[in-house]
Request: fold
Amino acid sequence: MQFALLLLLLVASVSSHVTESHCTDDSLLHDFPRRLRSATINVVIPPDDSAPFVTRSDYGVPYGFDIDLMNLISFLYRKPFQYQYESSTVSTISIVQSNVNTIAIGASTITPELTRSVDFAQFFKTGSSFLVKSSYGGTITGLNSLCGKNVAVISGTIQVDDLNRQNTQCRFNRITIKEYASNAEALNALSNGVVEVFVADEALLKALVVISNNAFKIVGRTYNVLPYGILCNKNNRELCCALVNAINYLIKEGIYEQLLQRYSFSCAYGVCPSRINLEGPTCSSRCTPGRWECKKYLH
Reply:
């Protein structure tokens, strides 16, 4: 129901055909066909449940923040997205690299290392944080508080690197790092006392707290805030720019903010403007929100 309201807002915006900077649905639609090399865009989804961004229903249908965003972009461009699940994050990157008309979604943090392999269209941002059982009575303020503790982390994430770097500062009281393949496995280890702390993206941890009916809590200070991105093939910058332009259009029209609110995220989690990679171009200047627009939106 709530997504239907977002779609109605988008329809109303599209029907007006007017924005202050002339970034209109007509201009987006005009640009997109010559930037697209296929009638359909393939969208790869990694295997792990990354609620609230992407979750697989009992019938195998994906839903969540990313899917709502992709549906809005699909409506803007009148182009269908075809979803497929992949077996691992590594294979997801390989598939995007091998097909110029394939993109990938999920809770993918943009890092300098990954941008050497693929491009990203920014759509969200979050930092890393610490999850413990609600009954936990210890004090955790940051990574330095983890020395001497058993800590869960998801394999292949930036938090693995964070913990390894922190271990160089722990001297003889090192962190015992336990890597897991999924959030469910890490939560099970936390619940059963195998680990004391689970380190992951704060946005994902917030969702896990709600799903667990507050059996867990987030503690300490969030650190290293970085954007999430939609993965794009480096040889199809035009497609990645089309995604950036659509996200910036949604920002300017106020629809992106309402999408954040739908998933109980404050505007602090939003990007403004969207851009390629960490510090890349914002693509169409007429679709890029200005500083005053972003300041108003973010506050």
Summary: The beta strands are 41-45, 55-56, 62-63, 81-85, 102-104, 119-133, 150-154, 176-180, 197-201, 216-232. The domain at 127-224 is CATH 3.40.190.10 (D-Maltodextrin-Binding Protein; domain 2). The first helix runs from residue 2 to 16.
